[in-house]
């Protein structure tokens, strides 16, 4: 049986051929115009695919997949994610693409046309887009913060920060690597508990969130396309004002899109940088062991319901299922090869995630390998070298037997130094952890930022590498957020005449509301709140929405009826294998995921969020990063690793 994707390419040029045949023969100008039209049509399709790939990558591959993989044991999570990606990720992505291509309407009207009494699915998608836009904007803010610090000749995360006085907080920089300290202390200015600092905003993060939403507002009102869709179709008559100097482009119906090209360029630049980071990281100590640990799979871990929940939730999240952006994009995009497009998006997403995760695992193993007594040896060696050069006085020389003592004694020696000596000793200490680190000593959304700041520091001219990398992250973040916002703007404009008459009013309302709603994530406890949104709320909501979409199309409207409608419209039948998956595989899988999520929320021991603890005394055998996660219903304490502070939230 033939697939819908096998629509004959001969149908596309029939119009031009018929008109040319009626005119007698093709002139040289008509041949050139036809070739140009085909070229730009193909270029447009390629650009659309690349922008959809960029949306998927920016949504979760860069910052979300690495920490989920590290939290769930590496290879076990990767294998589970790959299994779920094949079983229901690609089929559901293809379902959204083909529905949008078939009906050619926005996310709200699609479900109103298919199942009128389930029209609320589109509005539920808009609500999730609003939630995701709020906390995704703070990720752009983090990238902007790192980008602003990248212009220093000496990257600030390579050393403990400059301080005027020495206290326990300063020594905490020695108990962990400076890159982690910079993340919690400088970038986030994080509080020790989620209850603390919610009412106090971090100034530079607040300015960053304002800049992000202001850039988005300018993009929306000027109509720049830095995302994967546009609210209005591109027609040749509209191009007369945008491409007046190119008659061939007018003939073809397309013009070049500089902002879109900037996005695509940033994607390729990001891949080049990541490959460079990976190659350089392979020469770090412990690189082979880290990669081996990343691909090691323990079949016993498959019995963990939390592994199924997080892998399934990330499949739905990373592909943007349930957001409505894929439906809106497919309703305006050309081409018919949606099976290939869905498979390509999923494949590139997976490869990118594995590439990023490899770098993160290597850096984590490097931190763990160089911690403890190894770090003390490096610190003592550097201090002696600086004393010989005259940079430090003789009074800063460590005791002769310091290398024979436990690592904690080195911290005690520093804490007993006079303040005028403590400051330079801490400042010139190498970027390693005096405290012995384990392979799981940092988790959460900030893991990627801390790990890649370490990878960047390994290169000569690190400032340039940092500027390029974080600039690419900012562009991709803005593009991803713009695509999410278009999942709000486009349906509302088509559903409400007020917003069609005053489109800038909707842009003002969304950006102003988004800025005000995002301020909570710029507080001292904002990163903890963001973690709870990302782990508890959004994946569960997306699973519910996608399950309703699946039920609406495959069972209420009917998969068989849908195949017949597609045949009558496009002249080809859908591959029956996908209709089987929609009815008997994806829907039971989504319902099982939903059940697991509810079960875990009610019964499971609270997982953790990452908290910064600057009050921990130096004698405790932990870094000043306390791995604590919390769920909404649990308040009891659980015994953790030695010295870990387990905070629970009511």
Characterise this structure.
The chain has helices at residues 14-22, 28-61, 65-71, 75-103, 107-114, 120-149, 168-172, 178-187, 203-222, 236-242, 247-252, 258-281, 287-295, 305-318, 325-330, 338-369, 373-389, 407-415, 419-427, 447-457, 462-495, 497-501, 503-518, 526-570, 576-603, and strands spanning 609-612, 625-628. It has 650 residues and is an all-alpha fold. Helix 8 (178-187) packs across helix 20 (447-457) and helix 24 runs antiparallel to helix 25. The protein is elongated, with a radius of gyration of 27 Å.
Strand-pairing-aware structural class: mainly alpha
User: What is the number of E strands?
Assistant: 2
In N-to-C order, the SSE pattern is: HHHHHHHHHHHHHHHHHHHHHHHHHEE
Task: Give the percentage of residues in beta strands.
Answer: under 5%
Biased composition (Acidic residues): 1-10
Main location: membrane
Protein name: Transporter
Subcellular location: Membrane
Task: Provide keyphrases for this structure.
single chain, 650 residues, mainly alpha, two-stranded antiparallel ribbon, 65% helix, disordered C terminus
Topology:
Elements: H1 14-22, H2 28-61, H3 65-71, H4 75-103, H5 107-114, H6 120-149, H7 168-172, H8 178-187, H9 203-222, H10 236-242, H11 247-252, H12 258-281, H13 287-295, H14 305-318, H15 325-330, H16 338-369, H17 373-389, H18 407-415, H19 419-427, H20 447-457, H21 462-495, H22 497-501, H23 503-518, H24 526-570, H25 576-603, E1 609-612, E2 625-628
Antiparallel strand pairs: 1-2
Helix pairs in contact: 2-12, 2-16, 2-21, 3-16, 4-14, 4-16, 4-25, 5-6, 6-9, 6-21, 6-23, 6-24, 8-20, 9-23, 12-16, 12-21, 13-16, 14-24, 14-25, 16-20, 24-25
């Amino acid at each position: 049986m033939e697939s819908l994707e096998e629509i004959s390419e001969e149908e596309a040029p029939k119009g031009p051929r018929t008109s040319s045949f009626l005119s007698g023969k093709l002139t040289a100008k008509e041949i050139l115009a036809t070739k140009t039209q085909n070229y730009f049509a193909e270029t447009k399709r390629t650009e659309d695919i690349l922008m959809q790939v960029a949306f998927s990558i920016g949504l979760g591959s860069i910052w979300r997949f690495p920490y989920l993989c590290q939290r769930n044991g590496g290879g076990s999570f990767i294998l589970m994610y790959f299994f779920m990606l094949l079983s229901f990720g690609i089929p559901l992505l293809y379902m959204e693409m083909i529905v949008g291509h078939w009906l050619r309407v926005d996310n709200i009207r699609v479900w109103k046309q298919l199942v009128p009494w389930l029209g609320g699915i589109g509005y539920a998608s808009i609500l999730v887009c609003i939630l995701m836009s709020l906390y995704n904007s703070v990720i752009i803010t983090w990238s902007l913060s790192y980008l602003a610090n990248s212009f220093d000749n000496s990257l600030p995360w390579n050393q403990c920060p400059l301080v005027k006085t020495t206290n326990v907080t300063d020594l905490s920089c020695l108990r962990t690597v400076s890159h982690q300290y910079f993340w919690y202390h400088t970038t986030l200015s994080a509080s020790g508990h989620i209850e603390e600092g919610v009412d106090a905003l971090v100034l530079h993060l607040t300015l960053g969130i304002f800049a992000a939403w202001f850039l988005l507002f300018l993009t929306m009102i000027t109509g720049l396309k830095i995302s994967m869709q546009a609210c209005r179709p591109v027609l040749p008559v509209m191009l007369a004002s945008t491409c007046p100097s190119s008659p061939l482009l007018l003939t073809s119906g397309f013009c070049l899109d500089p902002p879109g090209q900037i996005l695509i360029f940033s994607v390729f630049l990001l891949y080049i940088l990541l490959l460079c980071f990976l190659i350089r990281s392979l020469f770090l100590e412990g690189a082979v062991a880290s990669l081996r640990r990343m691909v090691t799979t323990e079949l016993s871990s498959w019995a963990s319901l939390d592994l199924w929940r997080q892998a399934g939730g990330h499949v739905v999240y990373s592909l943007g299922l349930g957001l409505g952006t894929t439906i809106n994009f497919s309703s305006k995009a050309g081409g018919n090869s949606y099976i290939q497009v869905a498979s390509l998006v999923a494949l590139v997403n997976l490869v990118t995630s594995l590439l990023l995760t490899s770098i993160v695992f290597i850096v984590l193993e490097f931190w763990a390998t160089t911690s403890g007594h190894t770090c003390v040896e490096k610190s003592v060696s550097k201090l002696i070298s600086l004393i010989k050069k005259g940079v430090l006085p003789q009074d800063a020389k460590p005791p002769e037997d310091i290398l024979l003592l436990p690592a904690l004694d080195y911290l005690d020696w520093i804490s007993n130094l006079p303040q005028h000596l403590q400051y330079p000793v801490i400042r010139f200490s190498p970027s390693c952890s005096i405290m012995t680190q384990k392979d799981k000593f940092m988790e959460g959304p900030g893991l990627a930022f801390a790990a890649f700041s370490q990878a960047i520091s390994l290169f000569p001219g690190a400032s340039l590498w940092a500027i390029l990398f974080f600039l690419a992250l900012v562009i991709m973040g803005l593009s991803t957020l713009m695509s999410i916002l278009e999942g709000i703007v486009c349906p509302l404009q088509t559903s409400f005449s007020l917003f069609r008459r005053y489109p800038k009013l909707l842009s003002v309302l969304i950006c102003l509301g988004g800025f005000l709603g995002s301020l909570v994530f710029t507080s001292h406890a904002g990163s903890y709140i963001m973690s709870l949104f990302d782990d508890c709320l959004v994946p569960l909501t997306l699973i519910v929405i996608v399950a309703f979409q699946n039920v609406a199309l495959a069972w209420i409207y009917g998969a068989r009826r849908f195949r017949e409608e597609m045949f009558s419209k496009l002249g080809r039948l859908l591959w029956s294998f996908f209709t089987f998956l929609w009815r008997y595989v994806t829907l039971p899988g989504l319902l099982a995921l939903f059940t697991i999520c509810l079960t875990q929320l009610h019964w499971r021991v609270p997982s953790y969020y990452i908290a910064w603890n600057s009050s921990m005394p130096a004698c405790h055998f932990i870094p000043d990063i306390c791995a604590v996660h919390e769920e909404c219903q649990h308040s009891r304490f659980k015994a953790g690793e030695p010295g870990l502070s387990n905070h629970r939230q009511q």
